[in-house]
Design a protein that fits this description.
By secondary structure, this protein is an alpha/beta fold. It has a single domain, classed as 2-enoyl-CoA Hydratase, Chain A, domain 1 (Alpha-Beta Complex), CATH 3.90.226. The chain contains eleven helices and ten strands. The strands form two sheets. Strands 1-2-3-5-7-10 form a six-stranded mixed sheet, with helices on both faces. A four-stranded mixed sheet has the order 4-6-8-9.
Length: 275
Amino acid sequence: MRQFDCITVEYFKSHELLLWKIKDTGMPNFCLKGLKEFKEFASWVKDYFSHPDRPLKFVVSASEHKGIYNMGGDLQFFLENIQSKNIDNLKTYAYLCIDAIYNIYASFDLPVLTIALVEGNAYGGGFECALAHDYIIAEEKTQFCLPENKFNLFPGMGAYSLLSRKLSAGDADTILKSDKIHKARYLQSLGLIEELTEKGEAIVSLHSFVKKAAERFNFEYHHVKSKKNVFPLQKEELLRITDLWVEACMKISTFDLRKMEILINAQSRKVKVEI
């Protein structure tokens, strides 16, 4: 099995399931190194599981970070490159995010279902990553948020495209315009979360869900595939929106950057406590 620096990979052949987890290597966000490696990971998944002796029906994402699925974008990276007006760095980062999101959304170009196993809070790009999956299983106390409004930006790596296809226009707009924290049960009521689980019981819930889905996989897979055909999402749409995000980054004020810096410090303190 291939080894990676930023993620762990486990293949359960009897369950036809691949589980990848973001390693606990510090700040639980999408760093540039991790995004570059995810591109290699996605390519490996497509190649490795194209072999008939490696059956695969489910690709599951999770995190090794205690209490956190993912805190989203690398705010320190954003801050430094916005201050230095380095558009190329921001665009490189943004395009790698879209590459990751679209690989998950497109099920790695394989006939599989994708599941986000969210055992901790998912903010910003972490929320967007979870939304890119076909299903979300989350602990009941988990919180979700798109905090970009706090520093006068918008979520530019998939939230608009994904929420507008999963929710009514009104519900999608409410979440996109709000920087409020949303409880998992509320998102389940909107249809964004498939199943809720008690703290520490996520793996049990995953096994139960996979067992039921495997029994009716022909329906479940083609049901998801049909919905994606009715509401198609092309990678070009995601890239156009993330280009707008890079453009918006160049227009935020010094005051907004200060608010971003405050959030960076708050995240750093939070991670130190939870790790």
